């Protein structure tokens, strides 16, 4: 198949000849390759991090939360029956969440440590229907036993206070402080007696904040700590499909008794999710400047090429070539460089993403620097989204990079098309 005159001439000019022009062209291709690869790698990692964070959040929090405005939920059993009657709901469980003050009980002369975590009261039978907190997969030590003043604490919380299954904690709750205030108002003296709890297990929710700030207790013990009687703070609700949270919320508001408030998991984690989205978008636009820098390499190589090929351009003009044809020749060169850079960039990104964790391990061994410390992010491996799942992002990167590279070659091609034969031969 015979190639068009303009494309054939462009490919001939791009053929490596061990000249200065060939070196500049190669550098331009490498620049586009690195720019495209960096864009794809960063967007893949950001998307993977966002997806895994959402999964970890949903492991700890259910898709919906049902509470009663301004007071505890007293008749939660009947409310739960109404919730689970919805076909889109897969499970519902009561919860109690509130701050407590805990004090360790060390042996010997060691000083006790004090911390203020959040206690989360859970129903051992119903909790597995809304979260995986009591799952054996999340336990790193002990058992998921919260009965009779038993606690299951987060892994980071256990590390900070040096706790192990079998240790005891003195828990000061809101009930204790209320009693002291009441006694003071009555002119009486009272002693602040904490409740003794035994640490029976350590969980890893996969998210630093939860591992460091939450302890799990039975729903009965949490009710006692907050003087709730038979009431709870609300219900966690899990759906078959988390994306239907808003529509199910509207359905439940129509069927549940008035005065109840239903919030979605996205409402509960708005700040985290919005921060990730903003960071992802800002990163995308900032990294596109890498492509603009790479495009300047194409502009530089094309300008140099036009200067060195000035006599040949004059000859083509004298033989009858139009300015548009000359412009197409150099424009085709920019297109070929862009396509080669895009192809190699996609290939390099795929290679790096495939062996990203091996690269991080090699970097850690060689420099001692932990680029992605698991104790902070709590991911054993660097998350990344597969290229096959990045259809929209890949299209933006590919089309955007191609347009930038083509625009980089417009000015040199336009200057070449305006060159007059007389001026071209004057350089001979």
- H/E element string? HHEHEEEEEEHEHEHEHEHEHHHHHHHHH
Shape designation: elongated
The DSSP helix count reads 17
What is the rounded distance between the termini? 36 Å
What does this structure look like?
Helices cover about 55% and strands about 15% of the residues. It is elongated, with a radius of gyration of 33 Å. It has about 425 residues and is of the alpha+beta class. It has helices at about 5-15, 20-60, 75-85, 155-160, 175-185, 210-215, 220-225, 245-255, 265-270, 270-310, 310-320, 325-355, 355-365, 375, 390-410, 410-415, 420-425, and strands at about 65-70, 90-100, 100-105, 115, 120, 140, 150-155, 170, 195-205, 215-220, 235-240, 260-265. The chain has 17 helices and twelve strands. The relative contact order is 0.18. Strands 1, 2, 3, 4, 5, 6, 7, 8, 9, 10, 11 and 12 form a twelve-stranded mixed sheet that branches.
Write a concise keyword list for the protein shown above.
428 residues, twelve-stranded mixed sheet, alpha+beta
Topology:
Blueprint: H1 5-14, H2 20-60, E1 64-68, H3 76-84, E2 89-99, E3 101-104, E4 114-115, E5 118-122, E6 139-142, E7 150-154, H4 155-161, E8 168-172, H5 174-185, E9 195-203, H6 208-213, E10 214-218, H7 219-225, E11 234-239, H8 245-255, E12 260-264, H9 265-268, H10 270-308, H11 310-318, H12 323-354, H13 356-367, H14 374-377, H15 391-408, H16 410-417, H17 421-425
Helix pairs in contact: 1-12, 2-10, 2-12, 2-15, 10-15, 10-16, 12-15, 12-16
